[in-house]
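::Amino acid chain::
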Amino acid sequence: MTTPTLERNLQNRHLQLIAIGGAIGTGLFMGSGKTISLAGPSILLVYAIIGTMLFFVMRALGELLLSNLSYRSFADFAGDLLGPWATFFTGWTYWLCWVVTGVADVIAITGYTRFWFPNIPLWVPAILLIALLLALNLPTVRNFGEIEFWFALIKIIAIAALVVVGVIMLATHFQTPSGDTASITHLWDEGGFFPTGFWGFVAGFQIAVFAFVGIELVGTAAAETQNPQTTLPKAINSIPWRIVLFYLGSLFVILTVNPWNKIDPTQSPFVNMFAMAGIGIAAHVVNLVVLTSAASSANSGIYSTSRMVYGLATQGHAPFWLSALSKRRVPKNALFFSCTFLLAGIVLLYAGDSVIGAFTVITTISSVLFIFVWTIILCSYLAYRRKRPELHEKSTYRLPGGIVSVIVVLVFFAFLIWALTQEQDTLQALIVTPVWFVLLGVVYFFMRHRISSNKTDLAEVGVDITPRTEPVPGTNNDVPAERPDSSTKRD
């Protein structure tokens, strides 16, 4: 008898909207003004380059996950292909990424709430959010899918409305309050396409890359999705048009309606766009959209961290009690464990402005760690091509360009790390980031023997850790087998 596993209860529409929600971060709504001030119109090229590179990461992720449906996340195939250390480092690093991001979202949502209720105590919306996240995720995974579906839909409608309003303003030669006329020539008539030069272009990458964190979330949700052979490729293949519409489309209309040097970097260009169009409730509407975006990010973070911790626990990389599932196959203990760390957001809310500066550095660390996770995915692909060439040959969903694409993206990631050294705050984040990996290394050194013994314990209580060389049928009634033992060689 084996213990219950995660249930494939997410439908195609859930995964598609989860993928869209993962690609539209709060940074697009609130941080795009800052990126425009740094790079000018060339910010369009910045987002296009980042989106293209991450599309290749996602194609590599898709090929790996579909090569063996026993894999529940990228931490699983990382451990199988690179060694047990990769599961430990990738799983816990990804957990930290989303916990820190979740804390940021708690603080952001508190600020957005006080837009309407300025006198509400800071801890009230924070506690309500954490309680809401538990209420949404505890019943079934379908609950998570439904709420993410509607969260993502709100973001889609908001951006689509912005694009439509912007196109109308451009077609009618709308005149802004500053006296400028909406025109496509704004892309080059204020200092050219690269008005801030090469260094301004590089500075745009420092902030823009943070808007894409969470794009890999679809890989975590795949383990609980019906018919992943169909739904996963469909979700990944839609990434290019999502980037063109949501990122490039919205930024294009913003830059053509108003010259780039007239856009206030301290305000959301989305709010200003609707306000210029004469929509009086723009501030309230966009505040609701941004609040929803932050709530969506927090919801996604809690979902992904709970599944990651659950996977780590079933492999001995975390305490066994975190592998407990509810009657509806939800990792309840892992959910409570991750939500507990969100309470740190309440402490930061009362810590004063000086901590907010340090907190900015902490969130930057989280984004740097996302780059580490994306790099592990690519390194796993290289190991997969070397160790399992027969699976690559049989694959019907391959990474375009194969190994060459991986090398190009890895070089791009090296460029991103270099770019992050060019500003003081991001440089500080880079300097302290190795502390996390040193800590993980020390913990893993003392836990590595216990991990092996824990796997024996898992087998004794009925958890299947037997390697599986054939894909598991991804039908609604089929439950994936437990992840293969990372320490077992299957060359």
Residues 456-491 have pLDDT under 50 and may be disordered.
